[in-house]
Amino acid sequence: MLREVARGVVGGAVGTGAMTLTARLHRELHARRDGIRVDEIEEILDYDDSEHVVIAASTLLQHVVGWAPRSARGRQTLFWLVHWGYGSAVGVGHVALRRVLGREPGPGLAFFVGCQTMALGLFPVLGETPPPWRWERRLLVTSMVQHAVYAGGVAAANTATARLVDTRARPGAWSLRHPAREAFGR
Other CB atoms closer than 10 Å to residue 55's CB: what's the count? Predict the structure, then answer.
């Protein structure tokens, strides 16, 4: 069980990394198209890559522990903690879906739908965004593309690590075990 949770967290981190990279590329392309620097972008390009993440997390923190960061540095730190922590932890859900639904593409598609549904629900409730039916089309499309990238990264990583775990479980199958590791109990 612990191994599956770890696989899910690693898969979530891979998906978060993919989503982070595509968000950065999106910002750079947008800035280049408009002839400005990335730090001069004033409009929101993606709610998942905006102050709305901090607003949602701060709302929860305020209700749970009675505190939320106020400084720019504290808010930026909270953004990255939520981005990587939440993104990595949610990857465990894909492992559970694989267990229930079997091989891809079913678990990956269900995971994408779940992630997109969470974004469409959490941002309006906690992050002070309009309801999804009032989002600008470009924001809705970006959200869907970003969550597809995330879900695809999670599914690919979890599928790859499942193969490693499966080969370790079958007697006589190829594995990453090494005699030196086994001699030292690793």
Answer: 17
Can you read off the two tokens belonging to residue 67? 């505190």
Closest by Cα among 115, 137, 126, 142 to 16:
115
Q: Contact at 8 Å (CB) between 127 and 167? A: no
What's the whole-model pTM score? Answer: 0.85
Q: Which two tokens stand for residue 72?
A: 């720019």
Longest dimension (CA), the chain: 61
Residue 31 burial (C-beta neighbours within 10 Å; 0-12, 13-18, 19+): middle
**HEC states along 90-125?**
HHHHHHHHHHHHCCCCHHHHHHHHHHHHHHHHHHHH
Extract the tokens encoding 46: 């993606």
- What are the extents of the domains in the chain? 2-164
Q: What is the pLDDT of residues 114-162, one digit of tens each?
A: 999 999 999 999 989 999 999 999 999 999 999 999 999 999 999 999 8
**Residues comprising the chain, all counted:** 186
Structure tokens belonging to residue 168: 């370790």
C-alpha to C-alpha distance for 90 and 154, rounded to whole angstroms: 9
Cis peptide bond upstream of 171, omega within 30: no
